[in-house]
Amino acid sequence: MSLEPVQVMSGDAPEQLQVRCSANGERQGSWEEDTEARKDETEHLTLRDAKPTLRTPYWEEDTEARKDEIEHLALRDAKPTLPKPENAVTVAVSSRVLFRTEREQRVFEQQGVEEYLRFQVEHENEPFAPGPAFPFVKALEAVNIRLRDLYPQSEELFDIVLVTYNHAHVGIRLINTINHHNLFIERFCMTGGTSPIGYLKAWQTNLYLSADADKVREALAEGIAAATMFMSEKLSEVSQTELRVAFDGDAVLFSDESERIFKAHGLDKFFEHEIENEDTLLDHGPLKGFLEALGKLQKKFYAKGHRMDCPIRTYLVTARSAASSGIRALKTLRAWGLEIDEALFLAGAPKGPMLEKIRPHIYFDDQMFHVEGAAEMGTIAAHVPYGIAQKYPRKQ
């Protein structure tokens, strides 16, 4: 057997390998004279020419585990879904309640709009501090994260719209602030001083929060749930994982029918009226629709077995007494198909201490007396300027 000469790839001239006979009569190559060197070369050639070993792909080794991991990574890296307004629970928030803008407001009131715009541009890289609606908005975003985990393709989420009377020049500072605080707000409505109410209707707004009481009343007159927010110096810590929303009953969730009886004829007549009409449903109030929207999202958690750890919790906190007038309120909610997680009938006792224990992200009441009392205890409270109570001085 003859061996073909090996071409040396270094550029040197080819050499003939020396061949001799082995002990068994076969010819032996010179590589056998240097066993270790030839062993290394043989292993190299074997590795070079060997076909790769086929093995089961790693994702097939544990299909379910890999599926869960892939879904987790996809959810982690995916950009948040932008819900369509017709499918979302749309919450419109004024820049004056989402952020602290008192200094800028003073510039506007004392020096005029041109100086105000110049001031905003000069400070556009300075983020605003959080305002009274900030914890509420963060809680909405926390609920959205949970919803996306359970329903990755669903558009039934909270959709937050920033509404401001500001000129578009101020938009840069607002965007910088939103990015600074890691808020997910993509929808802006900067009206340049005109009323935003028409835009709120176009957004199909479920709730509007503002520092401008006149605009809140205008929204309520158009059938949009709305409330005026105030900045309190004392603020209680609130949950980072559970959205808590508390409502007064009359003139908030319900109409002001019973409140009118009380104002006109006193407490005894009020109790008599409620007992006589125990099985007559109360008419709806301005925030009934928002409670319905919260209930719709709650049921999405219930459907996945998360009733006990649902991140949305609702409260009824009312001055009604349970025995004489509470039953009508509960029957009305049940007839509407609405569930309230907790109901507190205080029979005229102050609401502030109870709200301090609940620590809601927002509490809605139609009477400034209760709003102020709640704020004194550190609760973020919002005034719903609706119903007969608005025609009476606070002391009455």
UniProtKB/TrEMBL annotation:
GO terms for cellular component: cytosol. Pfam families: 5-nucleotidase (PF06189). GO terms for molecular function: 5'-nucleotidase activity; magnesium ion binding; nucleotide binding. Residues 36-49 have a biased composition (Basic and acidic residues). It comes from the Eukaryota. Residues 22-49 are annotated as: Disordered. GO terms for biological process: adenosine metabolic process; nucleotide metabolic process. This is Cytosolic 5'-nucleotidase 1A.
